UniProtKB/TrEMBL annotation, chains A, B, C, D:
Chain coiled-coil ranges: none
GO molecular function terms noted in the UniProt entry: nucleoside triphosphate diphosphatase activity
Organism: Azomonas macrocytogenes
GO annotation terms (biological process): nucleoside triphosphate catabolic process
Name assigned to this protein: NTP pyrophosphatase (Non-canonical NTP hydrolase)
């Protein structure tokens, strides 16, 4: 996965639809949270064991919602100038210090 | 970024703390949604323009929350057997068909 | 509004559909959070001023989502044995001590 | 519970702190969603049965989070001119038509 290439494609969709004015960090965080709830919705009436054995339809749906969340997070990080990979590696190292010693 | 290497480190933290029994897909989706709300909280009282110009402290905080969300999504996808990159590329192609023609 | 009467009607719907086994506090909190995101979705691409002047259709939709949230919160409080009115009055008094002196 | 009296007290806190400029419907919906996630967080690592038997500390915490959500919903409905009781009764009647016949 080349994050820069994906971001270029996300920005191409945005620009083709004239969505740039909507893409403030505030709005992108809201949109990501709405997609997150659509992921949560898949699991809300399942018990934990059922959540490990999704139907093929729900499994595909979960992948789509994860993708929607990731796309909004990538757009958000681009607007804020956050390097998503650096942020992930820094927090992971921090968690290792806190929880894995 | 090597997703497999990151996942191994996430699983090492999980196993060191005996968290595996908590990591049902249902619970991981809930945990991701809680981290998402912590990201949203940064922006809740800012107007859209202010959200584009975060203080250094809020900027760093946003990166940490994005990282927390990503880590739970990676753990979730691992539990479900979802290839996050494939899911992202499939949904991106779908969005291109729907929105960029 | 008589909360007891409303709760009886909510429980009648639940029992008619045999939903009781789904109504753990954990699940009801998740369901409330999904409805909350449907409320947030109404506002996600609006600026703050636009959010003050919803179309009649969005205004009606917002009322429905608020109602969905309230119904899940009432069901949740009933399961947990929380008196919603008492909880509200206690937190309000607390906020008055913290923020209004 | 007299909703008008509670709303007056919420507005008094708001005005004492000069928060009115922050209280657009968009922002109030975001704030309510953040409080909702704090409610969800109480349950995220509990299984469904554990969620029915909260510790006294978690039980009190849940009541506080429910109260926070209600306060933001009341402020939101006031800004939008939504009668919360009417909205609830209308949606309840609708659910009865859909699910209880």
């Amino acid at each position: 996965m080349n994050p820069d290439a994906i971001l270029r494609r996300l920005h191409a969709i945005r620009d083709r639809n004239d969505w740039q004015r909507f893409h403030s960090p505030k709005n992108l965080a809201m949109a990501a949270s709405v997609e997150m709830a659509e992921l949560v919705e898949i699991f809300q009436w399942l018990d934990e064991d059922e959540s490990r054995h999704l139907s093929p339809e729900k499994h595909a749906h979960a992948g789509q919602e994860v993708a929607d969340i990731l796309m909004y997070l990538m757009l958000l990080c681009a607007e804020l100038g956050i390097d998503m990979e650096q942020a992930l590696l820094a927090k992971l190292a921090d968690n290792e210090r806190r929880f894995a010693q």
